[in-house]
Amino acid sequence: xxxxxxxxxPYPLRQxxxxxxxxxxxxxxxxxxxxxxxxxxxxxxVTPDLVAQLQxxxxxxxxxxxxxxxxxxxxxxxxxxxxxxxxxxxxERHNEFITLTFFERADHAxxxxxxxxxxxxxxxxxxxxxIMLVAIELFVQKTDxxxxxxxxxxxxxxxxxxxxxxxxGAGQVFSDLxxxxxxxxxxLICNLKMGSRQLGRVVQRTIEMETYRMxxxxxxxxxxxxxxxxxxxxxxxxxxxxxxxxxxxxEDLAEVTNEDVELDRKLLSHLTxxxxxxxxxxxxxxxRFTAAEAYTDLVKKRITELKEIPMVGMQTFGEFMDRRLxxxxxxCTWTARRQDExxxxxxxxxxxxxxxxxxxxxxxxxxxxxxxxxxxxxxxxLQETVEGLSIVAISYYGASLIGxxxxxxxxxxxxxxxxxxxxxxxxxxxxxxxxxxxxMKKRMGLKA
Length: 448
Description:
Blueprint: H1 14-20, E1 33-41, H2 47-61, H3 68-71, E2 75-81, E3 87-93, E4 97-105, E5 131-142, H4 149-152, E6 162-166, E7 171-179, E8 185-191, H5 196-217, H6 219-246, H7 258-306, H8 317-411, H9 418-443
Parallel strand pairs: 5-8
Antiparallel strand pairs: 1-4, 1-5, 2-3, 3-4, 6-7, 7-8
Keywords: Membrane, Transmembrane, Transmembrane helix
Organism: Limnobacter parvus
Protein name: DUF3422 domain-containing protein
C-alpha cells in the first residue's frame, strides 16, 4: 500500500460519532405486519436483568445464540424466528425508559385477531424489569384503496377515531388512543403504496408519537400536586410581606428598638424557611417539567413527519394533540414558571428585609456611638475635675510637709519662716504636679 495516501491519525471517537446517526435504523416491514410495543419505566441499572430475560427469550425461540455484551448494547435487534412466521424484536434503552417492539408477518390475518405476545414464553413479559407505561398493538394492513372511518370503527369498539391520510396520501392511520381489553392501545395503519422502509418509518414515528405523549404526561400529575403547595406558599409570602410592611419604621429610624430588630430577624428566618421549601419543590420538579417540554417537542416533530392529510369527519393526530395534550403541557409549563416566579418574589422580599435589618443595625450602632461619645466627654470632664482636685490635694499635703520641715529647721536655729516656706511651696508644688500629670498622660497616649 502506498503510505503517501494514508490519512492523518483519526480522532479517537470518530467512528462512534459517525455511527451515531445510524444507531436507530428503520425496520423494513412486510406489506402486512403485527407490531407489539411496550415502554417500561426504569430506575437505576436494569441491564443485567434485561439481558437475562432476553437470553430466556432467545433460548425459548431456539434462535441463534447471542452474547450478553451484544444484548447489553443501547439498541438490540434480534431475529427470533424466520420464514413465513418471522418474529423480530427490537430493544432500545433511553434515559428513563426502555422499549421492546415485536414485529410479526401477518399475510393472512384478521386485524387485531391475535397478539404477538402469544408467541412469547409464559409470564415472560411480567418478568421484565421496570413498570409498564405504554403498550401498543399496531396492525399494518395492505389495502388497494383508502378505507372509510366507519369501515374500521368496529376494530376500536365504536370509539371516536383519530387519524387520516399520512405519508402524502400513501397510507392511512386510525386509532382511538384508548386502552383496549388486552391492556394495549390499538393503532391500524393501512398501507396503500408505501415501500418497506417508508412503512417502517411510518410505524416507528407512530409508535414514538404515542410513547413520547405518555412520557410527557408523566409531568401532569406532578403539576396538579404542586399547584396547591404553590398556593399555600404564596399565601405565606403575602402574609409575611404584609407583616413586614406593617412593622416598618423607615420614616424614623431613631424609634427602632431591639424588639423591632428581633421581630425582623424572625421574619427573615420565616422567609428563609419558605425559600428553602420552594427551592426544594422546584428541584424535585425541574427535571420532570424539563423532560415534559422535550417530549412534547418530540411528539410534535413525529406528527409533522407523518405528513397528515385530514379526512372528513375525523380529527388528525395533530389536531387531537393540540386540543388534548396541549392544555396539560401548558399547565406543566405554567406551574414551572409559577415556581420560578415565586422563588424570585421570595428572593426580592428577603433582600428588602435583609437591607432593612442592616439599616436598623447601622442606626442602632450610630446611636450607640453617639451615646458613647457623650459618655466619653462627661468622663473627660470628670477626669479633668479629678486632676484639678488631685493637684490641690498634692499641693496641700506637699505644703504641709514643707511647713513641718520649716518649723523643725527653725527649732534647730535655722532662720526660716514656716509661713513663708509654705507660701512659696504651694504654687511651686502645684505647677510641678500639673506638668508631671501632663507628661504622664502624654506617655500613656491619653493626650496628643
